[in-house]
Amino acid sequence: MAKSFLSIERLTQKYPDGNGGQFTVFENASFGIEKGEFVCILGHSGCGKSTIMNILAGLSEPTSGVVKMDGFQISGPSLDRGVVFQNYSLLPWLSALKNVTFGVAARFPDWTKQQVEDHSIAFLAKVGLSEDAIHRKPSQLSGGMRQRVSIARAFANEPKLLLLDEPFGALDALTRGTIQEELLKVWRGTNQTVFMITHDIDEAILLADRILLMTNGPLARVAESVEITIPRPRVRTEIVESPNYYAIRNHLVQFLGKRSAELAGQPSEAGGTHTPQTIRIDKTSVQTSDQPILQAVKT
Ligand SMILES: Nc1ncnc2c1ncn2[C@@H]1O[C@H](COP(=O)(O)OP(=O)(O)OP(=O)(O)O)[C@@H](O)[C@H]1O
Ligand SMILES: [Mg+2]
Question: I need a surface site. Which of 34, 200, 204, 245 has the fewest CB within 10 A?
């Protein structure tokens, strides 16, 4: 099999359990992400999603296993990987614009001040921030505006990989809906590779090419990779009309409500890896009555 752009190989994370022993968050997790793909990961609280993301960002080291991007092993943080956290993490003493230019100037050291500023303003405009708002400091912006700045900052740096850890978790449903569509627009325009954690099933279906499903921890694993067989461009109000929408949604709800617990805590087979099973649900392809709608594709 050809190597993926991002390749996660036999990743294991253990932590001290407080009683002199260790507990295993996940073991031998292996999966790949292709260039330009938008992948979401869903799983219950504590299964290890943020731990995986922090390892991909280079902010923490796994107990064992490797992550390779473009064939090279990741070690430490890099401008090639941009991260957006739930809590905005903007620099409070800088304006929205300066929060963006700061990273862009570091990423493109040969650019003039004007180039850096024009590029940053263009990305702030893409996420709907006006000329007036971009000169305000984070404390003078609403939560939604702050998160727009975080997204603009991450995309403006043009990293090879964007890592988003529940970026819309703190936002109200209306703002969330608007920003999700802005995120899709920016992603379409840049073709960056995105790996995003979310707790919101509908958000994941709207945004992702594939959704990775994790079982409950400890000893969690990435059990399935569900293809989102809904054509793009996607608009929230229209995707519900896709014949695949409810079939995919039901599959995800069933997994999170039931199977994530049933499959929990199963250790890997001796020496085996935990590569997720690919699930493709497509009701639009022509079928006869005895053909299953749901296919598990061996990879
Ligand atoms: N530095 C650490 N030391 C010890 N245990 C940790 C550490 N970081 C995380 N854990 C534990 O690892 C497990 C996974 O944590 P993680 O933050 O990755 O979960 P998560 O899937 O992101 O959860 P949530 O959806 O609530 O954000 C949890 O049991 C957590 O308590
Ligand atoms: Mg988390």
Answer: 34
